[in-house]
Amino acid sequence: MRGFAEMQRPQTVAEQVANVLREAIADGSLAAGTALRQDDLALRFGFSRMPIRDALRQLDAEGIVQIHPTKGAHVASMDATEIREIFALRDLLESEALSLSIPTLGDDKLDEAAEVLARIDAEPDVARWGVLNRTFHLALYSACGNARLLSLIEAHHNAADRYVRMLLSSLDYRGVSQAEHRDLLAACRKRDAAEAVSVLKKHLSDGMETLAKAGMLRKG
Amino acid sequence: MRGFAEMQRPQTVAEQVANVLREAIADGSLAAGTALRQDDLALRFGFSRMPIRDALRQLDAEGIVQIHPTKGAHVASMDATEIREIFALRDLLESEALSLSIPTLGDDKLDEAAEVLARIDAEPDVARWGVLNRTFHLALYSACGNARLLSLIEAHHNAADRYVRMLLSSLDYRGVSQAEHRDLLAACRKRDAAEAVSVLKKHLSDGMETLAKAGMLRKG
DNA sequence: TCTCGTATACTCGTATACGAGATTTCTGTA
DNA sequence: TACAGAAATCTCGTATACGAGTATACGAGA
After folding, report:
1. Per the domain annotation, does A147 fall within a domain?
2. What's residue B159's pLDDT?
């Protein structure tokens, strides 16, 4: 993944379409299970089917949509076990990244994370909490020294984004979440990796539990 | 990743092309950095560029090739840090999978793994060791109860396959590797998760070290 | 001889077109 | 009325075509 691929890449239509679709799926305007017809999308976006196909394949690779040959693409619908799997992986990956990151984590990153927390408090638009949430977490992991680990974490955030947003749209959970975020940040400031990891694990399991209570883990 | 995608899928041309290319890259006949021209491949495979494009995009998602708009696709070349990152992730992911799997791992899977080891001993064709190696490992993890974790592990095996094959083509490392495999299997038979994980970690770090000694971790 | 500009060739991204398979709808019969 | 079979429609996979951007090669000028 290094080398020539690092230069600035021309943005292709397919990438732009993928970005728009990813956001639409994350914010719920494209519900789970929705069929993504190539012709429809091509018409709607004003391009031909080819870049749409590329975008769909990209999202398929990210796990956000499922493609079946001759049957087309659908917005991936996760059932309870899949969400549990994703949260289990997040626990594993993010715990590792956090404990790797803390020893060399600079104050600038911590300040950045703090600022994101403030922005979450101030942000009225629910749709923006998802990205801010992700930004906060990734800032804390940024010094982990393993780029591949970071992109894996980001991918799982993307995959679970829809469900996290459901969580965040509940106002009281948002308070809990923010409190845990501040605990996490405090532990990081103390450079106490063990405590930070335990706070993170609690944060994730609280999220799972809230999802379960809300009954979101029953239906596909 | 569940649902309708699980039914039997018609095999599309793109998938077949992707499989052939993946194997060619893994066995070294397509060296790292090689440019993959869509026209060339289309001509060689006897199809148009469209399914080739799909295949390349698929492999790009797997991290095996890099695609740059207007510059085309190249076989991904990993430098030392990337290989280290992959092995670090394998350590993390496979240790977790193994310790999750062992408590419920059935004897049938253990026998299966043992049989794969025998086949590795008997197999004269170097090109086949890579898949057998992967099959062995995945058999031990198969009861981990997290399908996503398993496919993540498989993806990382694929990404590192080329380098693992370099390792395996060295006869004396192959001996070390097989010995470690048998230790691992023995620990699993005892259902001793802690020991199994420690053997696995040693197995992986030995592999890394052998790669480093062979100087494969210097150049991109 | 070296450097820079231009022209040519190459490669990719995207558009359009066609055929195959699947799904739906319609029709005829039990 | 319910069901089976056939026709029509829909959707995708693949092929071909075109335009744009990039790299390369060649020639002119310093």
Report:
1. yes
2. 85
